[in-house]
Amino acid sequence: MAKIGDIELGDFPLLLAPMEDVSDPPFRALCKEQGADVVYTEFISSEGLIRDAAKSIQKLDIYDKERPVGIQIFGANLESMLRTVEIVEQSKPDFIDINYGCPVKKVVSKGAGAGILKDIPLMVKLTDAMVKHTKIPITVKTRLGWDNDTIRILEVAERLQDVGTKAIAIHGRTRSQMYKGEANWEPIADVKNNPRMHIPIFGNGDVNSPEKAMMMRDKYGLDGAMIGRASIGNPWFFAQVKHYFKTGKHLTFPTIAERVQTAKRHLQMAIEWNGEHAGLFETRRHYTNYFKGIPHFKEYRLKMVTSDTKEEVFQVFEEVLEKFG
Q1: Sign of torsion, CA 26 31 34 39?
Q2: How do residues 253-302 score in pLDDT, each as one tens digit?
Q3: Longest dimension (CA), the chain
Q4: Are residues 140 and 283 in the same domain?
Q5: What is the pLDDT of residue 57?
Q6: In this structure, are 236 and 296 located in the same domain?
Q7: Can you give the residue range of the structural domain that contains 297?
Q8: pTM metric for this prediction
Q9: Same domain assignment for residues 62 and 210
Q10: Could you give the residue numbers annotated as active site?
């Protein structure tokens, strides 16, 4: 049974990864319905939150039906991170996750995200201070290291655990790999198998099939799988994995009607949460996968991602139902 502090997550929890412009409340709700055991907010800039940046504040929206939910924050300034913890506490998340893994240049250049992998003592110092500053459990998401020559994840995990981190999710790539090449899960398994470690170790990176999730559980012995890109436009992925665990068989992929229905709900919830303009924009990245594998679909997808009103997109959904349903 994996636990974050006192929160029980089940035997091999499936976690929806925190993804920028993806892990918003509408999408988290859909994934939760399909069996995601834990969800995270999009990552939130500590500096943005302190400045009262509207986009950062809005990311603090969490709902009881999605618990257990973690709010993920990033930053490299101790004072800002502690202030951020105080602001985040008011949303009452189940845990606060620190992002030490984002490889994007604009984050890394400020020494945050994966940038902190160049300064392990600072990473440990920040984590230690944050653990002491709140009663909410602190967890960490990170990568194997900055590059192949600086992989010290065994030592890093021990030090993070020693200062009170309650769980660590590790992406099986270095920062210099970004999202290229294959994720290497061996070092994550080494962390899990280190007899000094007793907190949950979750694996992340390339969990894009039920078989891969099962391998992460059975071959690598990890405590849970964090699902990122495989879930975009495919909230059913969580149900597919759980069905496979239970039966050894693949769940039938949703019908066109079910896919249209989910895409509609997603768009409607996104508009209710964030207004029509942003709602339309934020759901666009999901359409490719919602309608994956349908032959001659290009013109419909193009219409979906270029329509400027919800009426237009809903009209395209109806056309899709008529033609392919």
Answers
A1: negative
A2: 999 999 999 999 999 999 999 999 999 999 999 999 999 999 999 999 99
A3: 59
A4: no
A5: 86
A6: no
A7: 256-324
A8: 0.96
A9: yes
A10: 102
